[in-house]
């Protein structure tokens, strides 16, 4: 090869490399811009405007059943009291206009058969009555009698089509089987047909399967379990097949945003080589797209560190407010500041907080939005 031909090829490579580097640089700069805390120090908007998509309820018979079966703590947190009156007082104090209520771990999965079905129906009917009594203050995600898939399909259809609840709550795993496992397909088909909002809440890992650490599950293990569920849903193509479902990941997605790059390289390992022929082969960019399509709530994650990580891989319009009350009662006492997540002001200005704490959640719950506007 002559020197001139070599120089021309080298020049083309450098030019191509410059284009690629420039493209990646723009993408990286955009991600950094999204993730860089604004640190505006602006106060939150005033008034009762927040819509809470991560809030729990424990109807009387449900709480009694938990205690009767030895669930005196949930994720290491003492099983709390709850009543509509307590919830309304909390909401009024912290400027929360409405809460979308859900049953936390363990759902009704500590029961089986008719007992589980009946308890799920009790919780969902209780929620539906709350929606009628306080239409502008409460929404609800239906609890299902998982891991019984057939019964859960029936309850989901009833809760969404007849009771008109706002979505469903699913735990990250049932009996050690994570969301994304093929045996849950019939339920996901039914939810996809209804374009359901699905709140994914972590489940406690069985004692024999987790490290012996003197720490309650809700501090760390819950976040890891959410990550496992989200990763498996992507790895098995669940999030690709059921694109009408809007999956909301609790607690800012657990550790998924931080591990997003690590998760995305799965397609370059033996996992990618074993990919089923009837599913699109994953790629780094496609995995990143799927991660960006999740919704992330701010429950126990209202800090610049957590939100910057979410914004680095996702979209601000996919961030929704969550309080985790009453399980956050110790960190959100009804004394002092009336801002339930002051750390959000370290990364969002007042207009962006309004988007995260009201506009985005209401987009996900059209029934509740219509009730509030009525």
Task: Describe it.
With 374 residues, the chain is of the alpha/beta class. The protein has a single domain, classed as TIM Barrel (Alpha-Beta Barrel), CATH 3.20.20.140. The longest helix is centred in the N-terminal third of the chain and has 33 residues. The chain is globular, with a radius of gyration of 22 Å.
Rounded mean pLDDT score: 87
Q: Find the structural class using helix and strand composition.
A: alpha/beta
Beta strand % = 5-15%
Order of helices and strands: HEHEEHEHEHEEEHEHHEHHHEHEHH
- Briefly note the CATH topology name: TIM Barrel
Strand order of the largest sheet: 1-4-5-6-9-10-11-12
Give start-end ranges of low-pLDDT stretches: 1-37
CATH C-level label: Alpha Beta
Report the sheet with the most strands, covering strand number, pairing sense and barrel closure: 8 strands, parallel
How many domain regions?
A: 1
Rg, Cα atoms, Å? 22 Å
Helix fraction, binned, reads 40-55%
Q: What is the CATH superfamily label?
A: Metal-dependent hydrolases
Explain the layout of strands and helices.
Elements lengths: L2 H33 L14 E7 L3 H9 L4 E2 L2 E2 L5 H10 L2 E7 L10 H21 L4 E5 L6 H14 L4 E5 L1 E2 L2 E2 L6 H9 L3 E5 L19 H15 L2 H4 L4 E4 L10 H5 L5 H4 L10 H10 L1 E3 L6 H10 L5 E2 L29 H15 L1 H8 L1
Parallel strand pairs: 1-4, 4-5, 5-6, 6-9, 9-10, 10-11, 11-12
Antiparallel strand pairs: 2-3, 7-8
Helix pairs in contact: 1-12, 4-5, 5-6
């Amino acid at each position: 090869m002559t020197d001139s031909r070599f120089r021309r090829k080298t020049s083309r490579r450098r030019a191509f490399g410059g284009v690629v580097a420039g493209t990646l640089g723009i993408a990286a700069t955009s991600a950094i811009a999204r993730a860089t805390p604004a640190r505006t120090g602006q106060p939150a908007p005033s008034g009762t405007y927040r819509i809470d998509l991560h809030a729990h309820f424990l109807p009387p018979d449900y709480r009694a059943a938990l205690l009767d079966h030895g669930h005196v703590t949930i994720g290491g947190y003492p099983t709390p009291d709850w009543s509509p009156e307590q919830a309304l007082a909390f909401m009024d104090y912290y400027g929360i206009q409405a809460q979308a209520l859900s049953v936390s771990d363990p759902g009704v999965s500590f029961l089986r058969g008719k007992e589980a079905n009946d308890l799920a129906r009790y919780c969902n009917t209780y929620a539906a009555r709350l929606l009628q009594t306080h239409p502008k203050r409460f929404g609800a995600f239906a609890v299902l009698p998982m891991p019984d898939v057939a019964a859960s399909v029936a309850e989901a259809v009833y809760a969404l089509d007849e009771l008109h609840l706002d979505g469903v709550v699913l735990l990250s795993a049932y009996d050690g089987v994570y969301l994304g496992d093929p045996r849950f397909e019939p339920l996901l088909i039914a939810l996809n047909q209804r374009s359901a909002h699905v709140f994914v809440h972590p489940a406690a890992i069985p004692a024999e399967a987790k490290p012996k650490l003197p720490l309650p599950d809700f501090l760390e293990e819950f976040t890891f379990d959410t990550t496992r569920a989200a990763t498996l849903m992507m790895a098995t193509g669940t999030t690709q097949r059921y694109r009408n479902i809007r999956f909301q990941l609790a607690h800012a997605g657990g550790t998924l945003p931080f591990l997003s790059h690590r998760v995305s390289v799965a397609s370059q390992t033996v996992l990618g080589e074993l990919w089923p022929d009837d599913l699109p082969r994953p790629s780094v960019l496609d995995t990143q797209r799927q991660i960006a399509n999740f919704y992330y709530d701010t429950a126990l994650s209202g800090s610049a560190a957590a939100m910057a990580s979410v914004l680095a891989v996702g979209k601000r319009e996919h961030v929704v407010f969550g309080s985790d009350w009453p399980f956050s009662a110790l960190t959100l006492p009804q004394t002092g500041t009336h801002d339930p997540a002051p750390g959000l002001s370290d990364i969002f200005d007042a207009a962006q907080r309004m988007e995260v704490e009201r506009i985005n959640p209401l987009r996900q719950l059209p029934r509740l939005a219509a009730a509030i506007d009525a």
